Records
---
Amino acid sequence: MPSKSLYCKHKHVSDSVLKTLIYLAAAVTVVVLVGILGYILVNGVPYITWKFISTPYSEMNPDLKGILPMIINTLYIVVITLLISAPIGISSAIYLTQYAKQGRLVRAIRFTTEVLSGIPSIIFGLFGYTVFCVLFRLQVSILAGCLTMTICILPTIIRTTEESLIAVPSSFKEGALALGAGKLRVILGIVLPCAMPGVLTAVILAVGRIVGESAALLFTSGIGYHMPKDFFRQILTSGRTLTLHLYQTAREASTPDAMNIAFATAAVLLILVFLLNCLTRLVTKVLQKQ
Amino acid sequence: MLQATLTNERAEHKRATANRIKKIIAVALGAVIALSFFFPYIRFVFKDSVYALSGLQLATVRGMRVAGPQMSGLVTIPLLTRIAVIAGVALALLGIVLLLLRKPVLAGTAYILAGITPLIVLITTSNIQTAVTSLNISEISVQYLWPFLGTLFLGIISAVLCLWTQGTERLAESIFKVASCVSVGSVVVITIYILVTGAPAIAQIGLGEFLFGREWAASSEKFGILALILSSIAGTAGAILLGVPIGILTAVFLSETARPGVAKLVRPAVELLAGIPSVIYGFFGMLVIVPAIRTFPPFQGNTTGDSLLAAILILAIMVLPTIVNVSETALHAVPISYREASLALGATPTTTIFKVTIPAAKSGILAGVILGVGRAIGETMAVIMVAGNVPNMPSLLGPVRFLTTGIAMEMSYSSGLHRQALFAIGLVLFVFIMIVNISFTYISKKGVQMDAE
């Protein structure tokens, strides 16, 4: 504590100045958000038509400027990534909370999860490119993008699931154990169902991360824009997600028409992010009610 | 009593039979893995003809004589490929033996390793591909995917069966444990890869030349990244200088002064700000901030708008949610008694906030700031869209190139030393991030210790 009294002489002036600053800062934050949302939505929403969402894209043909292939590519990446990453992440959260004793392994897992969440996505992109595209010979393909994203979202899933597993009251577990159930049965039958809203939150957060990701996918899943013909061929070819489509169209746009495509894509992305955000909120509310 | 013993015996008998079946299947699958190496499982497609090689051939044949119109040469099969093929057979057989010797855990490990060996074959045969390509005759492609996936799955299934003979509980624990090692494994592999791919260029260019060289010109093979490093640092510092005061004050607003109703509106706004994809920030910056800088009267004529300043403004917005969230959590954690004591001494609420609450939460706030630094230094797409991407020394109104954008800009068309230099930039960026990360861990640990006191 400083030796001078907390009761300052210039209290009145500094007090009101500081108070104004606080309100100003909060106002700046809100205004920035409203500004970005408003700007994108006002300019983008008028161009979102059913045709825009349901037609393929072509760089040559001015009639084909839809985003259907990008929506499908994004879906592919979300689904495949979650299919790989969710089981690994949830199992690892179960191990950390239910089995592991404090030790070197647990410390290593905690540390590496933290490190993983701090690595910027461009590094994931470089890594994914050298390992999955070049070394594993997947070329620049959706599958390579999925494998890269799997590592990207692992920390999100592990940490959120872990928190919800810890929150399950231990009396539930003890009750089940006392009735003679095995440990695995307790985990799968009692702990995991109780933590389900948390697991769901983890998955939704991961979906949000994948939908918004661009730098890690630029070199791994690439910027192809062709309509998928069959599933297996498609995941082995390059395909751009909505974010990369926005990036490409915004950079290459020379005409107002092209800019409108970028605006509409940005608006679709924002609406998607907003819906995912609402979904998280809803699930968290359910969790709190329980 | 008698009946109870009988049921027990029956259950015991049932379990023993089940275990025997699992064992038999695991042994059979192991045999399939071992045998698969004697069937053709790698295909070289060369011009129009297809050569299917079995594992045995791959391990014993000296190489392939490739003849073209001008050149011909012997393409040898790499030693590592041979070792991997032999190891695949040996490990599968070892798994069978260990299982019969009643060592299921070791047998499972052997099976998993046997399942992974094709991966090494896959990686090492790329040498064959480069050798053939360098002879300049024809493209050769190696088709491999299905046998590789097959072996991997067989290995995993038989390993699971091995462990299952010890009971479901043990199996589950092992599976959970292996899954949790994935993140450890990825970090180790990423670190190794970034080092391995980044080091050669640094060795070739020279560390001093690379880090402190002022010129980056790929066409004349000049790879100095001082401008990129300084731009990254300047951009991050500027974003933090702008973002931190606003962020902390917003956090104060949310946790201390706002009425609950207002906070309920502002908090989701901050959360939404965190969820907006970085491309959208870049898009917004490109269309709003860049033209605003270009037409801002004092700057007019001096700048095109694509500048360090634009990057700083966008990054400041992007680090806001991180700083607000972490600082708010830290402020919430300050015990209410601190505030009460200060107020009881006659301090005003505002004085209490700035003299008591914020100092008490300072380690948490610092952690938030460091997280913000990490986010700003690693941001790519938003910066690439507003910063102009010319590798200049940083100046507020001039176009600059960051470390991250340096990689992203040239990756698609680079080759040779140029590409290696990009990987080396990745290494430098990785080192920066690790320093940020470790100081974050250190500071948040210190915060926890302080709370414990």
---
Amino acid sequence: MNSTGNPYVPILVIGAIGFGFAAFSLVAAAITGPKRYNRAKADPYECGIEPSPQAAEGGRFPVKYFLTAMLFIIFDIEIVFLYPWAVTFDKLGVFGLVEMSIFIATVFVAYAYVWRRGGLEWD
Amino acid sequence: MNAANYLYVSALLFTIGAIGVVVRRNAIVVFMCVELMLNAANLAFVTFARINGNLEGQVVAFFTMVVAACEVVVGLAIIVTIYRSRRSASVDDASLLKR
Amino acid sequence: MSIFTAPVLNYSLLAPILIVLAGAVLGVMIEAFASKAIRPVAQLSLTLGTLILAIAQVWRIRHQSSLTAAMGSVAIDGAAILMQGAVLVIAILGVLLIADQEQFTVLAAAVPGSEEERESLESGQKLTEVYPLTLFAVAGMLVFPVSNDLISLFVALEMLSLPLYLMAGLSRRRRLLSQEAALKYFLLGAFSSAFFLFGAAYLYGYSGSVSLAGIRDSVVGGSGNDVFFLIGIAFLSIGLLFKVGAVPFHAWTPDVYQGAPTPVTAFMAAATKVAAFGAMLRIFYTAFANAYWDWRPLMTVIAIITMLFGSFVAIAQRDIKRMLAYSSIAHAGFLLAGVIALNKAGLDASIFYLFAYGIATVGAFAIVTLVRDSTGEVTDLKRWAGLGKRSPFAASLFATFLLAFAGIPLTSGFIGKFSIFSAAYESGNKAIVVVGVLSSAIAAYFYIRVIVLMFFTDPADDGTSVVIPSMLTRITVIAAFIITIFLGVFPAPLLNFITSLAYFIR
């Protein structure tokens, strides 16, 4: 890495690569892909579920969406604590490893509870 | 840019959230306003961390995010349960306890 | 890049907290993997075992006091040990009440009145999730009064609150009322913790440090922006005053006390007060002590309003749980007098009062769980008439707890009130003493009225009776009774113990 240049140059480069890749994919797909349209393809995409003007039960989403969302939030946010640990991993040494293992173990306990109690079953 | 401007934004967000809690009637909207208040506090913490030149405020912001997520989960569970029993999430309908 | 070293945690000093948390996690494992048949017994013994082990650890570290653990985040000083001990004793009595599973619904998620709910009730299963929830709440209550920086304070505040929000909604009878209590408690609690956090942010902005010691240094040194300090102290106090149920932040108290299952109310009313006042005492006695001129006048006004409001409104109540809720508001006012006193006597008196009040509260709500008719608990005050003639034993015990609340001599409440008011007098705050004695007199009126109702009114024949208590409930009631009377007659041992230990490290 060029140590004398502007430190933001690498970020710019990564941004340019990302943008270039996205543009390339779109253009390449438009040029090379076969074009066979049907009704299903013209529908708006909604996570694999039949899109409807209103969700069932008068515009409300079923409770299972809430359950899934809640589980996602809980397990997702714990990552916040993993980042600082990853940054100082070498300085914290064994202490950090043990503490984070305990932390992850407790998250797994929650996961085991959800799994055993049927929180992961869709129906 | 002057760091104090972020404090003004944070105070504004906090006020919007607090007003929302008081005037809105839907439990979920009330709850979202509380989350807005928590995030306003987070912004204040990060701004003060910048002003004071140490990292403690940013650490607090991490913890607040996690605690807020847990609060979301507990809150949604309670609100969904009460919605299923009453078919309504309005805090005005929940008035059995007013004697 | 700053030099970064691994923190030192002092596990030995954190042992009580860690044991309770480990017990809670084990409890979740039992929920996940044990069969339904053995869960109730396994959970109850695990919970009690955990709490007793934690008390033993608190006892072990009592002389290693005046240390900080976890890099100064937690202060294990004499006052911390006393408050942790009080929380744990109250928690054990509370868990013995919670073990009476008649009070709890089986399937909290089921819609009230639905087929699903009926099936779950008929299956004879038990709701055992309440035990790990209790342990998590206890862990939060152990951390809250010993927290020495703003991060641990906020995390502990939420850790003790979140399980309680859920527990408030678990009542078996009158499900809608219970769910509504949970919703109100949750929304108002989250609202107040947002205020707490915003205040914490401004205190951090004022002092540049999240530790209470750092804030204290800034206050003593007089450096920093005073506007930040005043905003911080005001918003932080709102959060704390909400948790202790002081006027004008008391609105949730009667609703939640009434709607929650009575064993949960007992545990919550007693243990939350200890934890929240513990944290409040620490914050005001250490971080804010030198700025007392900024907060004392307003806090005095709040204390006076709280005492008077709680006492007056309690008179008008027709429901025994609501009456006890308003009485708890009045008691929050008395305890605030101890916070405002800001001297050693005030600290000693507050800790004694918290312990005495907590025990009497658990005892009183334990009796409330026993007065039932065919549909469940009877909380309508009118139907308590003549209870003393029908079941003199239970009624006398309840009368004892009421007399302790009123502060009649020979009960723990008298010693508590006397020492609080003398501490307030010593600090030169005569107004609060006058109002305190006055509102005690008002409060005594409605306590005595209930006693008269129980003993000197003819019972109506409406099926109200005192059920035979289970062994565990009996232990709670008897233990609470013995402690209440013992502390009233021989307060010296505990008072001396508190006086010798109760110091905050600065």
---
Amino acid sequence: MLFNSISFLVFFALVVPVFFLLRGKARLLFLLAGSLFFYCCAEPKYLVLIGFSTLFSYFAARSISSVKEERKKRRIMVLNVCVALIVLFFFKYFNFFNDSLRSVFTYFHLHYPVPDLFNLVFPIGISFYTFETISYVIDVFTGVREAEKDLAVYATYIAFFPKLLAGPIEQSTNLLPQLNTETKFDQDRIIYGLTRMLWGFFKKVVIADRLALIINPVFDSPSSYHPLTILVGCYATAMQVYCDFSGYSDIAIGASKVLGYDIVENFDQPFLSRSVGEFWRRWHMSLSFWLRDYLFNPIVYSRRKWGKYALIISTFITFILCGLWHGPRWSFVVFGLLQGLAICLELMLQPRRKKWAARFPPFFYNTLSMFITFHFTVFSFIFFRAKDLHSSLNVVYGLFHSGQPAGSVGSELSGLGILTIVISLMMILYMFVVEKRLSPTFNKLRYFRQSIVFGAITLSLLLVFGYFDPQTFIYFQF
Amino acid sequence: MKEEIFSQLTQVYRDVFSQPDLQIERQMTAKDIRGWDSMSHLTLIVTVEKVFGIRLSGSEVMRLKNVGDLADIIERKKQ
Amino acid sequence: MKRLLLYLGTLLTVFIAVSFIATNLLEYGLKLQRKDSFGTLNHLTANSEAHDVIFLGSSLAKNNLDPAVFDSITGFNSYNFGFYAAKIDQNRMILERYLSSSHPAPKMVVLVLEENAVDTLYIKFPPQYYPYREDSIIYNYVAGYDKGIWVLHYAPFLGITQYNDYVKKLGIEGLFSSMKNVNNHKGFDPLTGIHKMTTTRFSDKNIRISEKGYSEMERICVLCRDQNIKLVFLVPPYYYTRKGAVHSGFADQLAALRDKYAIIIMDHTTWPQHVQKSLFYDKAHLNENGARLYTIAFSDSIRALK
């Protein structure tokens, strides 16, 4: 069930009233059943997989908290993490590594016997809930939280439908405790949630899907476009990916708010970052914080006597895996490598950057930093968006080699294309105006009036400029 | 003892984040202090270990949520 | 609770109002459109002009038969009611709709046949019929396949969410540019470009078409017989295709209909020019030049009937 589908709207409109009519355990079980139904609509046969992950991590955490010996606790934790990673690896990366190994073997004219598993359909959401189970078990191991006693609560935490298919990745300390208490019906929170959802739909249906129309042809055959057209396509890509995924997160966060739960924020105007490091604290925050807490920091602290080198090694490992997390493709590895390189460079230049910052006027320095960071991001997104490494390199090549006469840019982006760009730019401007004001203020009445006006304008724009051919969210493939 | 640790810790924070007039409070988190990212966090932990002569394990570091947690663990280790 | 209800009420009102206005504007524009399937449907539902000969069929009618050329040779007044991806029941619906108007019935109906348009029935793009949902014949045909038209019938303001960009473009064009002087070629849509493929051959299995498709063909035969209309089954030329006319099983079925309803079957699969690459757009569609040459040949064979 896609968020941007009529069936989701119907599902949601049915779930919310029933949810608030029920009380106590019945409500929780209803939420769990609804979430599982939601997952079934996407991928019924992998319900088994999510069930397995949930049960396995639940019992692992229970036994960690019941055994006394530190060594045994560690053993259970490691076992659970390994199994979770093996499952993830098998379903998501097996064919990829198999293919890569095979091409190495064929390169040396060797026979490679392992066949691909052709029928492996990608279990949607696996990258997200696997990370959640891992973080939960590690948290119980390190003592950040107690093991959850109630299986229903824990299963609801993993399967909670707003965040099930594409995050945000919840760490155990936020949503899980909330599920133990009953949420109250609060009309202002529901209004906020609904406005937030509407806002997400707007970003997806109006901006992202419209931009996709001009991006897809450029990325499909960059050699037949002028470098300027490709450049426009690259800027559009950054905006598209942002609007697509942050729009998804807005819908997820909004839907949770309606039900009375606060799930973590995922974006904080990332394109205004002044460094790549900052970018990752504002872009897909739930993933970067997860990677920081369960991958980067453990490596850094176990190797801290190496000083700066611990940071550098850890950064590279983290970002290569961060790239691979997005999908089994070499272009994602390159994407991760680029991010790692940039962050290491920032780390090396840190003392010098402080000096520069002191020398120039702050406005100039900040704007320049923002400009450089943004352009680096746009460049790295070429590897993020293209369907494989080869075609992303083609796009990069096309940026610098004119295959078409200079006058062709206008006609390449003609008619609908230019209209699309103009509409999208207007919408992006509107977006930056609204996004800041969306969060509730202390004055309930004033906030209520604002929500009505924003809601009405957004809804109207959505209807008039929306792109109504169903398109899936980019982050569903991860 | 408690206050002594806290004022020493304040000095560490001021040095690490090069903000000479930084005032820290127990409930402060990474969000509240400019420049407190994963990189400077390492410097902070290493400096704390050096200054107070203690050793923190990986999972102890992971459990830290704010300045207060850090002060508490230093106090516990010093005893 | 009051604020929430007010919020929901306002948004619902805005939704209905904006959608209603946008849908109506768009559909108004679509009804002024003279090109594409909307142009043809507008001509059909206007009931304004009687034709001596009408062409029915899929793109094989729409791209291959030029009424202007046909009229200049035969002296008839013809119209091309071909639709992209139309199936046999759509052809029947169009004929039924045409005959339901008060003007005199045509003298002749030419049904352009292709096997897969008779065999499997569906509607490729239902929203092209949505603006005409008030027309009972069109409505009943579409409602058999698509729930969307049913929804729009009861909630007409939802239209804007059903139309894609292509339809919106046509609607806006209809609204803002003067459509009066647009030459719509009487439903004919000339293609430009030359076939790039090599020889294609169809398999020659003994294919019979489905019961449903066959009964739709029979309904067309009955409609024509009842109104004394001459019915011609036309199989258009294919580029360098198999030597036989149609698959033998289908040919038997056609022969049965011919014997029962006195239909004329014209098999032009191997029109002498069908080996000329320069006349084809792809393996089954003629380009503008090819369509003109073929319509001349076709007109001659119609004239020979008289």
---
Amino acid sequence: MFQAQLLLSGQTVYSPWFARGGDYVRVTLDLIAASSGVDKLKVEVFTKNREEATDGAVATGTAIDTATVGRSSTEYSVLKELVRYKFTPGGTGQNFLFRMLAPVWLDAVKV
Amino acid sequence: MGACCCSCVDAAGRFEAVLLRLGTSVYSPWMCRRGDFLRATLDLVKANSATSLGVRLYTKNETDTGNGIEVDSTLFINKNTPGRVTQEWGSNTGTGLKELVRYRFTCLGAPSGSWVIFRMLAAVWFDAVRYISPP
């Protein structure tokens, strides 16, 4: 969970790596304020194994890409041992105040 | 009513592979509120025939007896296809959340004898933040 982060346009940042808690993760962005109301903040989930020494690759899922203040959720899967967020604020000269709520981990069930 | 001990929140707020038959309406155990807002996710594993599952949220204080009251009768989950859906309740919806909350699950649809299998994923609790523009 991240509290009240401020990002400016053009600053693409990754979160720290954290351990996978299940095969699937539902992540929630809480966009508190966006200066333009038009330019979007994009949130993706990246993943890699501990043995790898790279930035990781985007996991399977649909990115959150929104300019709307409030909560937005999405789900990612095919996660490796470690995951992290990638935040990409859009536009020029804009700022985005946001936080990530606690992720929800789950594994598939079959009937 | 047995008061929640807070260490059992995860157990009370998360359900694995529950089977509910048509016409059945059940409450979950009470769980402690951990914030002003709750985002709950239903994972409908399978719905037999034209059956759907409704999930509503109830609340009350520790001092109250009874079944509690519905947080907001206009905000609920109603799902009839397998998959996950998230609903948010909070201090800006209906009565808001009191000290205890619980789900009410209702299996709806037809024909008789049909059923749903579902689970609730771990609840996400949080409090509001405010952004005050600089003067």
